[in-house]
Amino acid sequence: MIRINQFLGFCAVCSVLAFGKAEARESAAIRASGHINIGVEAGLPPLGQYDVRNELAGYDVDVGRAIALGLGVEPRFVTLSSSGRIPYLLAGKVDIVLGGLTRTPERAQVIAFSHPLYTEQFAIIAPKERGISSFTDLLSGMHQLVEVRGSTAVAYLREHAPEAPMLLLDSYADAIRALAQGRGDAMVDVIEYVGHYLPVQSQVQWTVIRGFAPPVGEDCIGLARRDVTLRADVNHVLEAMEQDGRLEAIYRKWFDPGSAQAVP
Q1: Is residue 261 part of a domain?
Q2: Which of 184, 71, 70 is closest to 132 using CA atoms?
Q3: Mean pLDDT of the chain
């Protein structure tokens, strides 16, 4: 996931590089141990969260289990924060890391990436009764937008819809609640994350509009740069999952918000 404070995470990477050499385990060591250490964020639904049984669940957890199964080892999940994803990998605390890790040129200088798991895509999310049918409807400034403070969507809207008024809140849950309460007309953000919150406001019929903006970025699995064998093994598992439909099934399980409207 890309956020405005991405620079802080990159600074954390630089500090790890300054004080210690990468010690992530190589593929042979992982197989010999019988387990793989997988970094996930436990506070980033639907990627990772604790369920009603206080067990880790989410998209990243399902993908991590599938990767471990494909490698013939057991998964061991290590919970971490967004800023800890790359430092944990470089310090050898995890063998691979997920957590909405978007491929960027800066990150590619210090870690390697798997094939993309999915592409982050902006969408318009609005109560159906508002009658919003395209991004053009937002350009007039007649519709109040509700956005999450510090998100990439805010910068996108300030450039592409400068007349649109914005109510800035602190979380996706707050933003969706505000829309359901009638405090705004629509929201623009990455549908992979916002969609998780729509069923909570089940009294609202939601319209989800995609296709008006280029992809925001590609989310991948992060790995140590030196171990090309592990990278090849992980990519081989992902390719098999793509071919037999398992990767798509996991995506739909956690991300599909139900109703969707595509815009050419």
Answers
A1: no
A2: 184
A3: 87
Query: Do 233 and 207 fall into the same domain?
Result: no
First to last CA, the chain: 25
Contact 82, 13 (CB under 8 A): no
CA-CA distances (angstroms) from residue 8 to 15, 77, 92?
11, 24, 20
- CA-based nearest residue to 49, from 201, 238, 197, 185: 197
Instruction: Tell me which residue range forms the domain holding 211.
Output: 120-216
For residue 158, what is the domain's CATH number?
3.40.190.10
pLDDT-derived band at 15 (thresholds 50, 70, 90) equals very low
For residue 227, give the amino acid letter. D
Structure tokens at 56: 């880790």
13 is written with which tokens? 């990477």
Q: What is the largest CA-CA distance in the chain?
A: 62
pTM attached to this predicted model: 0.72
With respect to residue 246, please indicate whether it lies within any of the assigned structural domains.
yes
Tokens of 86: 């790359």
Say what the pLDDT of residue 63 is: 98
Strands 206-210 and 217-223 turn out to be unpaired
The domain tally of the chain equals: 2
Same domain, 111 and 130: no
Amino acid at 94: V
In this structure, the strands spanning 118-120 and 166-169 are: unpaired
CA–CA gap between residue 16 and residue 97 (Å, rounded): 16
Residue 46: cis peptide before it, omega within 30 degrees of 0: yes
The DSSP line for 48-73 is: BEE-TTS-EESHHHHHHHHHHHHHTS
Q: Is residue 262 part of a domain?
A: no
Can you name the residues that pair with 168 across neighbouring β-strands? 147
**Confidence band (pLDDT; 50, 70, 90) for 23?**
low
**Residue 264 falls inside a structural domain:** no
Same domain, 109 and 129: no
